[in-house]
Amino acid sequence: MSQAGPTTSRSLTAILGVLTDVKAKLAELGLNMSVWDAEANRVVPCTPACDLCRAVCGKGNRCLASIEDLARQVVSRQESATGCTPIGGCVIGVPVRRRRRLLGAAVACFPTREMGDQESLARLCHTYELDLPVIRAYARRDCTHGIEQAETFLKMLEWMLVQVQGTQTAQSELATLSSNLSNTYEELSLLYRISGAVRVTHGPEQFLQEVCEDLFEVISTPVAAVVDQHQAPSAQPTAVTAGHVEADEMQLQRLAAAVFSLGSDQPARPIVHNEFVMPPALADLPVLRNLIAVPIGTNTDRIGALLAFNKDGDFDTVDLKLLTSIAGQAAVFLANNRLYADLQELLMGVLHALTATIDAKDPYTSGHSHRVALISRRIAVEHGLDDDKIQRIYLMGLLHDIGKIGVPEAVLCKPGKLTDEEFEEIKRHPARGAKILAGIKQLEDVVPGIVSHHERLDGSGYPDRLQGDQVPLEARIVGLADGFDAMTSDRTYRKALSLDVVIHEIRTHAGTQFDSDLVATFLSMDLEAFLEELRSPDQRVLSFELARGQS
Questions:
Q1: Do 77 and 110 meet the contact criterion of CB atoms below 8 Å apart?
Q2: Is residue 275 part of a domain?
Q3: Range of the domain at 157
């Protein structure tokens, strides 16, 4: 006799729905069906399908033994069979299989026309103490099939089982395919979104946070991106997470180090632990049931790791491939971001050195360009501009006087009033600065702020006598910052003005020289504290760090 293991029992349970449908269809033909497992244990009982069977079964179910015997025969021989009941009914049995594995048997019985003759009915009523006229009426209605139809019903039952199981399998496979396609679409969408987010102007923290959040949406399990501090740019975070993660950054850093030995020379390969055992050194970490970890970077330039843990169920190869693909994109982004940060640092160093040479021509204006850059940046921040504009405005403030490199020192440092010719020479420095930067493609978008920072809203500025909205917002910000620093700094022709006088002058010229909205924003700040910050000895370093922070 075939033995039914756990897998067989689960498989039979999985198709009970379709077997119940078969049972209902046979009942319409007057057949009663029961289902048995591979050990001949009854799973679905035989329910009488007609009045005659209900009347006879109500007196002790005399047919059950014959049905059980046939079920044992079918599962033992694993082939279809027919038989008879003690009262003359017919029994048919068919093996129930799934992918050639025997799951059990479907056994059906029905009353026959042979049971309906007068002698058989009289004997049946006498034996079971039944009312003969009632049973005769049941028999005329219910005994419609002959014994010779047993083989026909047997073939029909075999065909029905094949059909309904095939339909269920197709539906199951279709549902699986649909689920797989849906998952694949989500994974491809995730990879597409991450590819679109790979822009070096994004900060590492922002990029990795988006990666973790998108990945969490797809696999519905906590995710962490851990970066080795020794490999990362100084502004880069050590770890970001998505989902419910109880561990802090240091704990996640230690977990990644324990899994991959970050910083070692050993090759790092993706790891899947569906029965993760926490190392003693990590005993203080929250319990991790399972874990998948993928290195970010190469064996020679390992940057960090992408981790996912505590999944309901096991991590599989699909999860591993997805995390590996994302880790590859993250490695490209982080490597490019590091190169971009190095280039930004080099560029800012060159620009600061260049502006320092300009400021050095006039000791009274030393540090002026850096202060204007800081003031411009602060105004832009307080005015609610976006990060890209704030960075450009900082560069405009830093480079606004670069055109003065062509102005003679005798004019720049003259202690008295300038002649008309000397003032015309000074007025050329915005256009000269724009010309100097015109050949640098990366600085094209800072030229408008440089060439127009001496324009006035009333049209009395230079070099193009622009009015109102013709003056770019960036140039208005740099112009306000330039005017504030000029009034609060010592010059060859006068001492620095007091803050009260400066504020009065700015208010007086709001709407004519300066933008009224920007003036309102600027004067709402704590200018006394801001002046102290600008005059601090580390102002040069501060301005450089602020510029790097925008990269």
A1: no
A2: yes
A3: 6-171
Tell me if 90 is assigned to some domain.
yes
159 CB neighbour count, 10 Å cutoff: 11
Cβ atoms within 10 A of the Cβ of 208, count? 27
Residue-level pLDDT at 177:
58
Euclidean distance between CA atoms 416 and 221, whole angstroms: 73
pLDDT digits (tens, 9 = 90+) for 126-183: 887 888 888 888 888 888 898 899 999 999 999 988 888 777 776 766 665 555 555 5
Q: Which pair of tokens denotes residue 16?
A: 């009970």
Contact 219, 311 (CB under 8 A): yes
Considering the domain architecture, whether residues 315 and 430 belong to the same structural domain is answered as: no
C-alpha to C-alpha distance for 171 and 338, rounded to whole angstroms: 51
Whether 147 and 15 map to the same domain: the answer is: yes
Whether the CB-CB separation of 88 and 12 falls below 8 Å is answered with: no
DSSP-derived secondary structure letter, 362: -
93 φ, ψ to 5°? -135, 140
Calpha distance 487→482 (Å, rounded): 9
d(CA 197, CA 194): 5
- Does residue 515 share a domain with residue 434? yes
- Is residue 345 one of the residues assigned to a domain? no
User: By the 8 A CB rule, do 409 and 399 touch?
Assistant: no
Structure tokens at 141: 């209605």
pLDDT in tens, 405-419: 877 777 777 777 888
Nearest residue to 423 (alpha-carbon basis) of 475, 480, 463, 479: 463
Q: Which of 171, 188, 222 is the last residue of a domain?
A: 171
Name the band, by pLDDT with cuts 50, 70 and 90, for residue 342: confident
For the domain that residue 227 is a member of, what is the CATH number? 3.30.450.40
Q: Which helix (H) or strand (E) holds 507?
A: helix 499-508
355 occurs within a structural domain: no
Are 390 and 529 contained in the same domain?
yes
